[in-house]
Write a structure and sequence with these properties.
alpha/beta; six-stranded mixed beta sheet; 2 domains; Ribosomal Protein L4, Chain: A; 7 helices
């Protein structure tokens, strides 16, 4: 399958071939959703923590006598029904939220997400984006001519500090490495912009 190759002025300069095993699969939305849940769950930081009975230091003396007070038969003041102390069945920071998913399934989910971009005409292949210096204004001028919706995931083949810092202050652009392409970012950003060398790295995942 062929698609257009653009320069950084968004003018068509060539036609490039896309691998049908990566960019032209039947989109499996269930698999994409499962991969997204897997990614978010494994990135979750477990910080919520409440005290248990053993964490509270307080007297174990029986509060009042067993009968004839008109109150419930309360024993220790550390009871969870009493205010401002420990609670029952609330979050602890030793809970494990991680999930498992096969590598082949994760890879296929990524390919399905890429195929969805192609089907919905939300992908652009750029020969290269060259900047002389770190300058946000230059990136603004480049993306102002973008023929697609300006909510962009820009995929770079290698670490490029000039490209990254020039787009860092643009709220509608995120720059990532091809090695870190993931489901969450593909779903969050509408337009996928791939540098030509990034395409070659993605093809190597097959």
């Amino acid at each position: 399958m062929e698609t257009k190759l653009f320069n950084q002025e968004w003018k068509e300069i060539w036609v490039i071939e896309l691998d049908q095993n990566i960019f032209w699969l039947d989109v499996n939305n269930w698999l994409i959703h499962r991969a997204l849940v897997y990614q978010l769950a494994n990135a979750r930081k477990n910080i919520a923590h409440t005290k248990t009975r053993s964490d509270v230091r307080w007297s174990t003396r029986k509060i009042y006598k067993q009968k004839h007070t008109g109150n419930a038969r309360a024993w220790s003041s550390r009871s969870p029904v009493r205010r401002k102390w420990w609670v029952v069945f609330w979050p602890r920071n030793n809970r494990n939220f991680t999930l498992e998913m096969n590598k082949k399934e994760r890879r296929k989910a990524l390919f399905c997400a890429l195929s969805s971009k192609v089907i919905n005409n939300e992908i652009l292949i750029v020969d290269d984006i060259k900047l002389d210096a770190i300058k946000t204004k230059t990136m603004v001028s480049i993306f102002s001519k973008l023929p697609y919706e300006k909510n962009v995931l820009l995929v770079s083949p290698v670490k490029n500090e000039v490209l990254y810092k020039s787009s860092a202050n643009l709220p509608y652009v995120k720059t990532i490495l091809a090695d870190y392409l993931n489901i969450a970012d593909l779903l969050k950003y509408k337009t996928l912009v791939l540098l030509k060398e990034s395409l070659e790295k993605i093809n190597a995942l097959k």
